[in-house]
Write a structure and sequence with these properties.
The structure is a single chain. The chain is of the alpha/beta class. The protein folds into 3 domains: 2-60, Nucleic acid-binding proteins (OB fold (Dihydrolipoamide Acetyltransferase, E2P), Beta Barrel); 84-114 and 210-371, 3-Layer(aba) Sandwich (Rossmann fold); 121-202, no CATH class. The protein contains 7 helices and 20 strands. An 8-stranded mixed sheet has the order 6-19-20-18-17-14-15-16, sandwiched between helices. The chain has a 5-stranded mixed beta barrel with strand order 1-2-3-5-4. Strands 9-8-7-10-11 form a 5-stranded antiparallel sheet. The longest helix has 18 residues, at 81-98.
Length: 376
């Protein structure tokens, strides 16, 4: 089948139509004219793979990685970085309009750093013969090139090359700490340093993987929170206290919640490590918080890709803070969630795309929603 790509979609797809039916094409770019093969065919839409490029989009560039389109790690190595950021802003804006019904949107700010070698930890795949990532939509391992993966820090690449590949079969977690020490064992505990703050965590405890942008992420969340020394805050999906610890330094006191008991254990330890005596942590999901026992000025929330549960959104609306700082890694679930907040009188005041995952389809954002108060 032949198709012309005229749009983009979340997931790294180019979008086109054949006889009115929508096709999402892997690694396609607006302006491409393609021969494609369909897979995962549905009644109203289908996915497709490129068989041959008949006409190349002017936006296309040569990929710097020979594994591109084989390995499932990257989606945008066939366009420039400025084009990638433009794509992500367009996708975010489209989700805000279609899902959250926001037609008049605030300007989307952007924060970026280096495009390559930004990851300080990840899961790699091993089969006793090679290290790599899975092939797209497959469990076949695509071996890292001699130069290593462009997404991993150079320190990780060098240390992977020193491992004995015959000793491993399955998934291996690798990480480096802020001093460059290398870890690859599930029992290891790392110490991270972001700005003036220190965090202990298990090697599999969630922590932001882009070591180049963590500090700017913290700064923006603190700015959007508008907290003063008189204010209380909640940090929902707090993890090991990544946002909770810095926020405690500018607020009266705060509460951190996370469903993962192991993360909360480290959050308590990190509060002590950073001399934070004004914090309490609870191993609770957002839906189990009692909304009538807390009165924060600001709620910070950083959920996983699935976003907040319906009950969790209802809980936050019942708490009714002045400000919601929402950190998201999925523009679709984010748009769904803030639609419920806006029905409760919140307005999206500021939004920043912070590119924590360059070269991939993932879109990270930080936003500020403010409760509109009407004088009677």
């Amino acid at each position: 089948m032949k198709i012309t790509i005229d749009d983009i979609a979340y997931g790294g797809y180019g979008v086109g139509r054949i006889n009115g039916k929508v096709f999402f094409i892997d690694y396609a770019i607006p302006g491409d004219e393609l021969e494609i093969k369909a897979y995962n065919d549905k009644k109203r839409y289908s996915f497709g793979k490129i068989v041959r490029i008949q006409k190349y989009s002017e936006k296309r560039v040569s990929s710097p990685c020979p594994n591109f389109e084989l390995c499932g790690g990257c989606n945008y190595l066939n366009i420039s970085y400025s084009e990638e950021i433009d794509f992500k802003k367009r996708i975010l804006s489209s989700n805000l309009q279609k899902i959250a019904s926001i037609v008049e949107q605030p300007f989307i700010n952007t924060i970026v750093d280096e495009r390559y070698h930004y990851r300080s930890h990840c899961n790699i795949k091993c089969n006793g013969k090679s290290f790599g990532f899975y092939e797209s939509s497959s469990n076949n391992i695509v071996q890292f090139t001699d130069g290593g993966c462009l997404l991993l820090s150079k320190n990780l690449i060098n240390n992977i090359n020193s491992l004995n590949i015959y000793d491993y079969n399955g998934e291996l977690k690798i990480a480096e700490d802020w001093e460059g020490n290398f870890f690859y064992n599930d029992n290891h505990i790392l110490t991270e340093n972001v700005g003036n703050f220190f965090y202990k965590r298990g090697i599999r405890t969630f922590f932001q993987s882009n070591k180049l942008l963590r500090n700017r992420m913290l700064d923006l969340v603190r700015k959007y929170s508008e907290l003063t020394e008189k204010d209380q805050f909640l940090d929902i999906c707090a993890g090991c206290g990544f946002f909770t610890i810095p926020l405690s330094k500018i607020a009266s006191h705060g509460f951190g919640y996370d469903i993962d008991k192991n993360s909360i254990k480290y959050a308590f330890e990190n509060a002590g490590l950073n001399n934070c005596s004004n914090l309490k942590f609870f191993a609770l999901s957002e839906s189990d918080i009692n909304p009538y026992k807390v009165k924060p000025k600001t709620i910070v929330v950083d959920p996983p890709r699935n976003g907040l549960s319906k009950k969790g959104r209802e809980t936050i609306n019942a708490i009714n803070p002045e400000i919601i700082v929402y950190v998201s890694c999925n523009p679709a679930t984010y748009s769904r969630d803030i639609f419920d907040f806006m029905k409760n009188g919140y307005e999206l005041k500021e939004i920043t795309l912070i590119d924590m995952f360059p070269c991939t389809y993932h879109i990270e954002l930080i936003s500020k929603l403010v409760k509109v108060r009407y004088d009677h």
